[in-house]
Structures
1.
Amino acid sequence: MMEQDILLVDRMNDLAAHDPLYSFALDELLCRRTGRGGPAVCHIWRHPQAFILGAQDARLPYAREAMDWLESGGWPVVVRNSGGAAVPLDGGVVNLSLILPNASLQHASYRSDFERMSALIASALQYTGRKVEKGLIKGAYCPGDYDLSIEGVKFCGIAQRRQAKATVIQAFVVAEGSGGERAGFVRSFYDMASGGDDSLGHPLVVPGSTGSLEELAGLGPMAGFVFAEAVRSALASRLLLPGSTAWTEQSPLPEQDEIAAAVDMLRARYGAEE
């Protein structure tokens, strides 16, 4: 593999009241740039409060009623353009996006994208002495084969979005607070959106299936910032891409009007029907 710069876009402290699709739109634009020959990117971000749906969630028979319930409680709802299912975001959830050129993934399956993300997160947490395992955790929200867990309790889910020339791998990491409370919240959404019918194929969420790094890895009440710093250290140690050069923090980002246009595009293309 040729040497490759990794751009770090660190938005841990950006908790402005952006549209919930803002960070997904930024990923979309950065992915296009990477596909045109720009650097690989690691985008670290948080959102103060939003409920992110997968496309299948928005098709449940009472999804509109459930979304209205969420929004009446101060939880804006959007449908994302990557895979996966429902995820609540708040200040205690750290989101990672790896944006990689497809040229670096030649002759590899889509699973290699997930492997890179899981390897980065495992490397970041290695110093804790906790073993990070991957594999489906039954009863967790946003379930998948690349659930990341500690002692059988999930703390991270991974999804991806492929463009023609680059790919975004997105992970949510439950860092602070109660994973069980978040899981119970997601279960309430599904109970309402499904009308109580558990035969519709949606995740059947169990509160005890999900935990936070504060709970599972002993990172303390500032676990989000501790974890983000560990990710930065892993990137600086070149643990993401073999042969990669050191990351750099400075690079012009897309203009705000360009991001706003991308938000509008995502909402028009993927938004839930009224």
2.
Amino acid sequence: MNSSFDILASHSKYGAELDIKKGGKVLIISDFHMGSGRQDDLHANGDILKKALEDYYFKNGWTLVLNGDIEELAKYSYKEIRREWSDLYRVFDLFAAEGRLYKTLGNHDETLLLEKDYPYPLNSVLRIITEQIPIYVYHGHQASRLYTDYNGFISLSLKYLLKPFGIRNISSARSPRRHFHVERYAYNFSLENNCISIIGHTHRSLFESLGRFDYIKFEIERLCRDYPASIGEDRKKIEGEVSHLRQELGKLKRNEKRDVLRQSLYGDILPVPCLFNCGSAIGKKGMNAIELDNESISLIYWFIQGKGMKFISRGWHKLEQLEDTLYYRSVLNHNKLDYIKAKMELLGSK
């Protein structure tokens, strides 16, 4: 196991705790990569992000966890970023003023530790305490030796070689092979410590240790089991869902290398649902995040009407409109923590 995970196991001075056993709702979101202009990775989703945080999560009493790589300090100075995204920092201030803001460090914003005037506490890991199972929130780059050993060199390369040409971030988010490397370490850490990990870093959302490709295969299997007993409109709905999921599966298969698709986080056994990834706020068609309370966990998706993923907007997912805007929230996956704990105990035992 990578020694970088020692900071998680020991819950060091750079760790924080959040107890939600008596109530509270938590949003975990990562990878904003805020910069200083229109070339920002966040530029396309900046408005929907600000609106969702302020008018949905803050107004409804949520706690906000910013899980790393919020500022793109590999390319820009904190002063530049603060000036460009002052409206978003204003929203962060709203959460912070009520003690509802936590921030973990990523490989692109860890130099915030050197900023004397940075207004928010900085952590390497956040431990969320629930009645069912401990949950560790950390960015995920701790699993990659490339970033823990050479992050300074990578930052210089991004700032002085790539920034002048407007090239977007080159990181684990660009490499399917590195997806699996980072996720496998986090998965093994969770198994060994009997906990749930929620990471970011790879920009690839995971729910119960499953990426979108694996999840769709399991979902098609579930729908096929339900199909024989269904009748009427329920039967037609299953037929429609399977058809759309098969189309989405085909698209994912074309976009990923075949050898990568054959890889697995969990080998030849059934997946233990101990790893989650909140995705990122800079997706081309929307943004993902994790929602959590003492009883359940969800992977959610925010998008702009007409620009979201087609299998979402076709009507197979329940949509929630944000006031009178064109912004919509959809729950992609949801489960109870006691059910997840039971699966972990049964599938994760040696």
